[in-house]
Specification:
This protein has 667 residues and is of the alpha/beta class. The chain folds into three domains: 161 residues, Beta Barrel (OB fold (Dihydrolipoamide Acetyltransferase, E2P)); 188 residues, 3-Layer(aba) Sandwich (Rossmann fold); 155 residues, 3-Layer(aba) Sandwich (Rossmann fold), CATH 3.40.50.300. 37% of the residues lie in helices and 19% in strands. The protein has 22 helices and 21 strands. Helix 17 links the parallel strand 18 and strand 19. The longest helix is centred in the N-terminal third of the chain and has 27 residues. The chain is globular. The two termini are 33 Å apart. About 2% of the residues have low confidence.
Length: 667
């Protein structure tokens, strides 16, 4: 049902819901709470801890006029609780001022406590009056614009009365494994006052979503075993001689990976391999050795990178390692003349190795004898994009690379069609990165030390979980950028986040590499694999909000030069679980061990969590579920296909999911 047709919604409110991407009642009941407020857990403003989330009942005394500084609009209100006064502040949300009036409120947000001056940053709020006495556990939804929580709660309850959700999982399997009815799961995730019931509902809903996702993977993969059409003539002696071109000796892990690729390309079957290795494990050198196997045999190869910054870096490496072969470069920023000349030369076979970005995937890019494809940072390319690369030649060998460690159990589910090669070790000469957890009282000391590092010619990253702070849940890049520019005026700051255009991102990252920028304030879009040798400091705000694997990936952005590097994990959390996780990161640099621990502590880990973009797992990004939901879904899919249960219905839904997956990237 269209939301505007739901009783009590109407055209005006339906337009407000459109800001959240919700137009139907089905989409509304699938809009899951981000968290739940325990109305019995209200705190005194005297007890609040810096950077913690707090639920505070208080009186709003005064709303200041909206202030404007450049493009930044700020709303500030004065609050009181008994004899204690404090403030609430909203950045870039001027509409908040129109919704606030003096009176009793319930505020929920992140606390800032500097020198006993307390403020709540971008908090959510509820008017407390005779008609609105919230009790028990109350769902909190992620919001945009001026939509209030009560409107979403009311809309969800209305939608649940008319929606009859139908499970894609065959009824016989639901009965066999005693799964919760789908409708009951939706009601409990939105309306239950029992945390155990909410957890059970989240597990059931996650299982439902993964069932469709894994069924789509199963259909996409099919039987990928294909006979080889290109016969390589390269020898082991050739490969050993090529490895001497590098200024280092290959590790045991690199040598084993090269052996796997050599065995693949000299076998009767085409290669379809995932090469995963920790940050700094030397995956690029292994990939270049694979490219050598192809060009030495008289074929062409292509090296695909997700961004122009990374592609330009890889092009320079290819030119240095392959001086005796013809290397071409193709990217969106190439001129029309350059693109035409490269495409013509490529089609005539006059280019041996092509390095480029998504521009390589265009239909008019034709190869004469393509045999080997490398897809760098494969998680940044959609399924359809990777498939289109393999269609550029006659069944070319495919090597996709990832620096995101994936627990073996999950890789078997999501990369079941690929042979997986892991490089477990690192080059011995790599200097370990010192990692420290920094509490709020130590921030000033840290800033003084960073100033000194930058004076010495070093550079720094400051990473936040979010671009904008719509709900007071985490430090935002835009907010921090403005704050740091004021706090550290002698440092040249740049801002990088996912809402910028690709050209803007590339321009900022290039300026950072050229040392025109001293420090980069960013979300997690900092490119994996981009070498900035003088970047020796990584500062991660709200570190407790990231998964261990993601923190490890961020830490790996520094330590790429000859100087000692440092990673500072900032948190105001007093949670024992959060501190346990951060201390685990301090104690190990093994990305695969951290990924397994992430799976244990956080269920799906950040590989399958909030890092996803597009529609990959957008439906369940706010659910808290364990990895059992994924494995249960895999078991159900296998049994449904094996017993041929509801095949037409499952295939149709799976292909719909595939359509939404085609252009999705994971970062």
């Amino acid at each position: 049902m269209q939301l505007r047709d739901l009783k009590g919604i109407g055209e005006k409110r339906a337009k407000e819901f459109e800001r959240l991407g919700i137009t139907t009642t089905e989409e509304l009941i699938r809009y899951y709470p981000r968290s739940y407020l325990d109305m019995t857990n209200r705190v005194s403003v005297r007890e609040v801890v810096h950077n913690d989330m707090a639920l505070i009942a208080c009186r709003l005394v005064y709303v200041e006029p909206v202030s404007t500084r450049g493009k930044r609009k700020t709303v500030r209100v004065l609050l009181e609780q008994g004899r204690d006064n404090f403030t609430a502040i909203w950045f870039n949300q001027p509409y908040v001022a129109e919704k606030l009036r003096p009176g009793e409120y319930l505020f929920y947000g992140r606390v800032q406590n500097y020198y006993d001056r307390i403020s709540l940053v971008n908090p959510t709020f509820e008017r407390l009056d005779a008609n609105n006495r919230l009790k028990g556990l109350v769902p909190v939804y992620p919001l945009k614009g001026g939509i209030p929580q009560w409107l979403v709660r009311d809309g969800v309850q209305r939608a649940l009365r008319v929606e009859e959700p139908v499970s894609l999982i065959p009824a016989s399997l639901i009965a066999k494994y005693q799964l919760m009815p789908l409708r009951e799961a939706f009601e409990k995730i939105h309306l239950s006052a029992n945390r155990r019931e909410m957890q059970e509902a989240a597990e059931r809903l996650a299982t439902e979503e993964y069932f469709q996702l894994i069924a789509a993977f199963k259909l996409i993969k099919g039987d990928r075993t294909q006979a080889r059409t290109k016969h390589y003539t390269v020898t082991e002696r050739d490969v050993a001689a090529f490895e001497k071109r590098f200024p280092f000796t290959f590790t045991n892990g690199q040598q084993a990976a090269v052996r796997s690729i050599f065995d693949n390309v000299t076998s009767p079957q085409r290669m379809n391999r995932l090469l995963q290795g920790d940050v700094g494990s030397g995956k690029t050198a292994v990939a270049l050795t694979g490219i050598f196997m192809a060009v030495k045999s008289g074929f062409q190869a292509v090296y695909l990178s997700p961004t122009e910054v990374l592609a330009a870096q890889n092009f320079a490496v290819l030119q240095r390692i392959f001086p005796d072969y013809r290397v071409g470069y193709l990217a969106g920023a190439s001129t029309a003349k350059e693109k035409r000349e490269i495409k013509d030369a490529l089609a005539r076979g006059e280019i041996d190795i092509l390095c480029g970005t998504h521009a390589v995937l265009q239909s008019d890019v034709m190869f004469a004898r393509l045999a080997f494809c490398v897809c760098d940072e494969q998680h940044r390319f959609g399924v359809a994009q990777r498939n289109s690369l393999s269609e550029k030649g006659d069944s070319p060998d495919i090597l996709v690379m990832s620096a995101t460690p994936i627990p073996r159990t999950l890789s078997l589910i999501f990369y079941g069609d690929l042979d997986v090669t892991t490089i477990p070790d690192k080059p011995a000469e790599r200097i370990p990165i010192s990692t420290a957890v920094i509490p709020p009282r130590k921030y000033d000391d840290m800033f003084c030390w960073i100033r000194q590092e930058i004076r010495r010619g070093r550079q720094a990253y400051f990473v936040c979980p979010r671009i904008e702070d719509d709900d007071g849940q985490a430090t935002s890049a835009e907010e921090l950028y403005e704050k740091l520019r004021t706090q550290l005026p002698e440092i040249r700051f740049g801002l990088l986040h996912g809402k910028l255009r690709e050209k803007e991102k590339d321009s900022t990252m290039s300026a950072f590499k050229r040392k025109e920028i001293d420090a980069l304030v960013s979300t997690t879009v900092i490119e994996v694999g981009v070498d900035v040798p003088d970047a020796t400091v990584m500062v991660i705000y709200d570190a407790d909000r990231f998964g261990l694997s993601q923190l490890h990936q961020l830490r790996g952005r520094v330590g790429r030069g000859a100087e000692k590097s440092y990673c500072f994990l900032l948190t105001g959390s007093t949670s024992e679980t959060a501190m346990e996780r951060l201390n685990i990161l301090k104690s190990t640099s093994d990305g695969f061990a951290l990924a397994e621990k992430d799976l244990e502590l956080r269920g799906s880990g950040d590989f399958l969590g909030t890092r996803q973009s597009g529609k990959f797992l957008n439906e369940i990004k706010n659910l808290q579920y364990t990895s059992d939901a994924i494995f249960t879904a895999k078991k159900l899919v296998d049994e449904a296909f094996e017993r041929r249960l509801d095949q037409d219905r499952i295939r149709l839904a799976a292909m719909e999911k595939y359509e939404s997956l085609k252009d999705v990237v994971l970062n």
